[in-house]
Amino acid sequence: MAPTLPPPRRGQIGVRTQIWPEYGGWVTTLRTAHTCDLDPAELRAARALMDEAFDGDFSDQDWDHGLGGMHALVHDESGLLVAHGSVVQRRLLHDGRSLRIGYVEAVAVRPDRQRQGLGGQVMGALERVIDRAYALGALSASDEGQRLYLGRGWQEWKGAVGALGPQGVVHMPDEEPPLLWGADLDPVHELLVDWRDGDVY
C-alpha cells in the first residue's frame, strides 16, 4: 500500500487546489517541486506509485531517469499521492544546434483514479515548466499514454532519431520516435539525444 502523507498546505508557492464536481466534489492538491525539495517519504510514495501504475514494469533505472528535475505531484484530501510526473533537463542535437530540452518522465496515475483528468493535470504543470524553462519538450510515450499526449498538442517526430553515445553518434532506425512539445524542427535532420544508461529515449 502506498504511503499516505499529510496534504500540502494550501497557499504555498507551487501548490494549487482543484475541486472536481463531476466526481462528487473530490478535492485534489497539485504541487510542483524540484527533486531536492522532496523529502524521502515523498520520493518513496512516488516510487511506489510507479510500481502500482505500471504493474511492476518500472525499473529503478526508469525511476532514476525521472530524478533531478521538477516534479508534479497530485494528492487527494487524505494526503494519498494519486498522480505524478517529472521533467528533467536533457540535450538534443539537431541541425548543428545543441538544444536544452525538458524531457518528461515517470508520468503515472493510480489505477483506481485513471480517466479522471489527473494525467492532464500533471501534464499541464509539466508543460508550463517546459514553456518557461526549455527550448522545447520531448517524451517517449507508452501505447496507453500516447492518446493523452497527442490530445494535448504533443506531436510525433517524423524524422530519424539517434543518440550521441560514448563512442560517437549512434543511429537508431528501430527506435520509436519521441513526441515533441513546442518544437519547430526540420525532420530532414536527425534528432540526436544525449546518452544515458537504460532506455535512451
Verbal overview:
There is one protein chain. The chain contains four helices and eleven strands. With 201 residues, the protein is of the alpha+beta class. 22% of the residues lie in helices and 35% in strands. The chain is globular and about 50 Å long. Strands 1, 2, 3, 4, 5, 6, 7, 8, 9, 10 and 11 form an eleven-stranded mixed beta sheet that branches.
Task: Quickly list its features.
22% helix, alpha+beta, 201 residues, globular, 11 strands
How is the secondary structure organized here?
Elements: E1 15-20, E2 26-34, H1 40-53, H2 60-65, E3 70-76, E4 81-94, E5 97-109, H3 118-133, E6 136-139, H4 143-151, E7 155-156, E8 161-165, E9 168-171, E10 179-181, E11 191-194
The protein's oligomeric status is: single chain
Please compute the radius of gyration using only Cα atoms: 17 Å
Question: How many E strands?
Answer: 11
Helix content: 10-25%
Order of helices and strands: EEHHEEEHEHEEEEE
